[in-house]
Fold each of these.
Amino acid sequence: MSEPALLEVRALDVHFPVRGPGLLPSRLTLRAIDQVSFDVRAGEVLGVVGESGCGKSTLSRALLKLIPATAGSVRLRGVELTTLPKAAMRPLRRSMQMIFQDPLASLDPRMTVGEIIAEPLKALLPGMERAEREQRVLRTMQHVGLLPAQINRYPHEFSGGQAQRIGIARALVVQPQLVVCDEPVSALDVSIKSQIINLLLDLRAEHGLTYIFVAHDLATVRHIADRVMVLYLGRVMEITDRDALYARPLHPYTRLLLSAVPIPDPALARRVGPTREELPSPLALPSGCAFRTRCPLADARCVAERPVLREIDGRYVACHHAEAAAA
Amino acid sequence: MIRFLLRRLAWAIPTLWVIVTLSFFMLRAAPGGPFTEARRLPPQVMANLERMYHLNEPVWEQYERYLGNILRGDFGPSYVYRSTTVNQLIAQGLPVDLTIGALALALALLIGMPLGMLAALRQNTAWDYVSMAGAMVGISVPTFVVAPLLILLLAVKAHWLPAGGWSHGRPAHLVLPVAVLTLPLIAYVARLMRGSMVEVLNSPYIRTARAKGLPERTVLLRHALKPALMPLISFLGPAAVNTLTGSIIVEEIFGLPGIGRFFVDGALNRDYTLVMGVTILYAMLIIAFNLLADVLYGVLDPRVRQR
């Protein structure tokens, strides 16, 4: 890649210690994120998809150091974040903010909208004049489609979509470069969903934002992402440009996900991909390829050897059989 | 807020009336009376006593007379503590309980709240386990065990503190009763505080506060503390009244002239007016503190305020 990436993630691990069952529990390790590497270029939208429990939310929180990484590296504009002490991390939070999944629960019910949006400014730009801060809050509210008259309202007076606008304003008010959106529309009605996605796209165009956009379905990501990363059990299966991914998925898991996207036409025959088995426990991952227990292509090599993420036709895939799919 | 207060105060009047009426008739329905003693009084003396205290009138007239008296703030003469009025008894005893109770409450909050918060912040560490185990002991060991133990150690053996008595509230006489009252309270407050704090700290908006880039102190004091106080306030409403109106056990053990003993003595002696007096006082305090708790809810949570 010619220009340096805004965010570089290398071999990131996030493991959680878990107590096993029984009277004398053994210590187990839950590998929520396992050897994940990817880049985010300035100005792009990287979609992150995967089933529930694949580590999407863990990944987004680990990127912002809301939970500690076990190993690996996360670099923002070349600055290593994983080893940064809390106090040194705070100024960097101006550059990277997060939008959360449950819009209402993510807002302190005891604060007014104005206080919620102004608080990051007070914390991260303490030198800012009061009048300027108020101006900035009002301007940001306008950007996200909130009325100035709503500034003294409390979160519970808003609908889910409106609450998510507050959450977006709160994230954008410090003018970050990178915004991690952790399933920002999953809790919203379909009609509101597209409103919020369009708002995020507009804001990106206006402010030159970079998004990491997490979702559990490929349909939502298709509208917003430039590139898509597919996660399965905490591992990267495939990272590809959006159009290439939707036109010709290389990884069998991506194909499974695509076949699960509902087709809005009952006349079309629906071919749901092979789901041979339930999701394996993240406490005891299969040997070799994590997806092999559900994969129609799995063979002896997939059991023995873990596929690495490799480049095929300018795309990145972690599958031993990717060439066959590409051919 | 003003309208809310006025409405609640207006509601307090029928509530009190129901309490007064119920306890009045329940007392009369109980067998025996204030003058039925082991040594039977001559019938003439009995008749004179009953006439003097209007006990010979029909119950209905007695009830009317009593309601009129309490409306004027007169709880009547005590039947057992002769030539003393209930007002005098309460006026003498209540300050003792208020002093000890208020000190115990203040200490419980000052010590219990930080203890619980620290335990929540250091969840599942040695600090958490030790302080919560200590709190469990504080709750489980009854006052009548702790009090004699402390007297034995600090008064009888070490001679640091007086074993009992009031002495017009000299500080040295306050230490042991306050300590005995406050220990279980500290334990309750710490456990409640830990529980609610752990819950609040796991809530999404605390995560948001951290993601905003707020310093941890701001996250705790501005976002976490207020909601974590709610269960504590619910507990403190009635607990404060119980603490402030005295404990018969603490009063008996330390020989304190409080009103806690009137609740039991009065009932055993069928001292109608005294029982009524302390019951009404207790009811009024409960109503007042629950109202205070509701006001505090509103202060802490705008959603309550708007309702």
Amino acid sequence: MSRTRCTRRLPAAAVAAGLALALAACGGGGATTSADDAAPSAAADQLNPNADLRKQSLTITIWDGYSPKDLPQQVEKKFGFPVKVAIHDTNEMAMAKLTAGPDSGVDVAFVSGQYAQALNEQGLLEPLHPELIPNLANLFPEASQLSYDKGNKFSVPYTWGTTGICYRTDMVKSEPKSWNDILNPPADLKGKVTMMTTERWLALPALKSLGYSINTSDDKQLAEAKDLLLKAKTSLLAYDDTTFGEKLDKGEAAMVEAWDGWCPTTNPKIKFAIPQEGSDLWADTMVVMKSSKNKEAAHEFINYILDPAIHSWVSENILYKVPNKAAMDMLAKNKPDLLEANAPLKMTPADLLKGESIIDLGEASTKYTRLSTEVSASQ
Amino acid sequence: MTTEHDIARPGAATGPLSGRSPRRARVLGRAAARLAFLGPGVGYLIVLLIVPLALLLSYTIFRRGRFGGVVYETTGENFSRLVDPLYLDVFLGSIQTAAITTLAALLLGYPTAYAIARLPRRWKTIALVAVVLPFWTNFLIRVYAWVILLSGPGLVNEALTGIGLIDEPLELLYNQGTIVTGLLYSYLPLMVLPLYAAIERLDPQLREASANLGARPARTFWSVTLPLSMPGVLTGCMFVFVPCLGNFVIPEILGGGRSIMVGNLIRDQFLKARDWPFGATLALAVIAALVVLLFLQAWASRVYGGTGERRA
Amino acid sequence: MRRPGLLYVPFWATYVFLYTPIVVLVVMSFNAGDSPYTFEGASLKWYGELAGDATVRQGLVNTLIVAAGSTVLSTVLGTLLAVGMARYSRSRLLDAFGLLPAVLPDLVLAIALLVFYAAVQMTLGLHSVIMAHVVFGMAFVAAVVRTRLSHADTSLEEASRDLGATPLATFTRITLPTLAPGIVAGALLAFTLSIDEFVIAFFTAAPTEPTLPIVIYSMVRFGVTPEINALATILLAVSFTVVIVAQRMTRLTESFR
């Protein structure tokens, strides 16, 4: 590159760069101050229970296939505000998008409990207004005592369940009983096993098989777990959070780490087992973003979901348990066949509470990030 | 052209500026014009390209924030992590994968481009459009088509078992070979086009001369055609190598998350791990590798460019 | 020339390689069954599904908005830049600078913009994707227009200037008409690149406003559904038409040269 020529243009370039930086700084400054101004007022509980919902609109973000397809139409028909559905494929994607800018445009986000906890720590969530959600009374009492958010102060559980092994009875020689069956499968199942990739669930089988807590932040324990996971990687078909059920259904995989609701037990050849070492109790929750301009509609929406008829309809459509006693009773009464065909749906809160609740670990959660990067990076 | 006459009209010269000191006005006008033409584009690129890149690169010396972003405490940790064998392996592995893909694209693309260049004019256009056409469908869908083809119950296995070559479906998906196939499929047209352009320009008389002088076709190819088409080879290799190195979608969809490339690592630092400083450091490493490559290319094209000049 | 047969083996191999997956996509899009692997009779059912898919529709609308917006901006800025670089500057640094977005890996540009948007606290949306697409769109338009400029005869412009026309008049009356085919080609290129662009949009779009490639990405992530085959077939048909029309138009403009 010709140096003589650049020097001739340097002053102009410098001026332009300075201008750009000044512009950038102005933009930044302006936005931060307005955010600071907004913070205290948003903390004050000033929701109008009689707000005209028809003037609001709601944007939710949720996993694909995790709510009944016609939910937006149903809500709009009932309350008169339009509902827009954005899709995220993992909790991590949802977090990245919800934290990327000052206002993600999302009103209600569906994320797992520990992620709701992390969002709340960042001050991104609106404290819930229970008086606007009378249907909270329909929940199982256990559902308000989950350790990531005791008392449901900023989140309402939408579904709950546990993680286990989902497998093809016709492809495994013996039924899996332990996490070791997936971490170190028999020779004939090599290349027919999948595990999850989202960090906490990636670590879960290893931690549980070693007898450690899934909320551990002990470096030595995590190092042991890493060794196990690296060994397990050699016999995996893939890491999969979204399509393990499909892989099992098609016979591409014989045994997968799965959330109970996405284990396609409607296929009679597929069963779900909770390993003897125990597992987790997870909850996927609904949270209202502090940046939302439609908070009344957001609360109305959450309340609507908790209606027994709606929540049981959700469960029936997505085949996950909902922490709603009235809804589960209704489902048991109206659709006994469905429960018979899908054993995981029959688990009671007492069954679920045997699992260890996943909580956000604050600063220590970076250790899990590191762990999952290391496992996925190893060749 | 009518415009020519418009301008040539004497009246056009008597603008408002032409009254006093036309020369000074001309110089001023030229400076203003330069600002008007270059200002918007250059300004835009400075704000939305240079400043963001500078910002990104500055992040390499800071600590990560717990929820993404950075904490403004300097650290050398990001760079020491970069040479951690774990990440170094991924980085070198990605360069290897990109290089294999580039080589495969060259081996397949060169004869193809050569053959196209020798087709009759009409067929030439059709053959060229046919190379580019798949490129105009969605990139992700093209990648995904290979999932249908290669998965356990997919068509390739079906066909192989059908003709009795294999009994059990092969494990064709989720390995490095699949990733290379996907990359090759996505970027092969980028190799064929510059190669075609370079070969097409060659003077057929040169080949004839070589043949007349008694050189065998292979000799003619190695000592005449190939060196002369070298600029096209270099461009094609760059066009394929660069996007391969930054790719994260193909390893994810066709690699099953088991083998990852540096693109996945970078993506994950921003969208999963929320470790922006380390992601920025990885990006810096990619940029550095590409700069080295660009210099190599510039050097190589100067070497071969000399030969090309003689031709003209 | 001696053994053309041997040469045509890789030639045909290339086309078989390029088109097998596409043929499979198109055939399977008419599958009556749910399986993406076995053909169970012809049907248009997946096209019906696709037509009723609000997410895909929204993605398509967003993509068209982004492509249109970024093409207009890219074309204006890129054309000015090309003329400026060719006529009012001889800086090779500037040349390299103008090409930088075209050679930078899209992932690097994407994260740089993500970091920048976060630093200035900008709310993401379609505008953030448009702004991002202009960065590379402008570079491609500038490159195409410059090629045209370097072939163009400068004597007319010089004559115009010598006769005292202002740079603006010279530009609008002489330069622009000569450049028109190049500008159109550049705009088309910017439009095409924007429509198919995934990585940058993935990082800079708001979660609530995905473009079509982002929608396709999550569809693919959630497994193999025949609906994607139908979408692929439609996209193919559209690009096929565009290619043919563009081909015709090029022939038309060429005859005007």
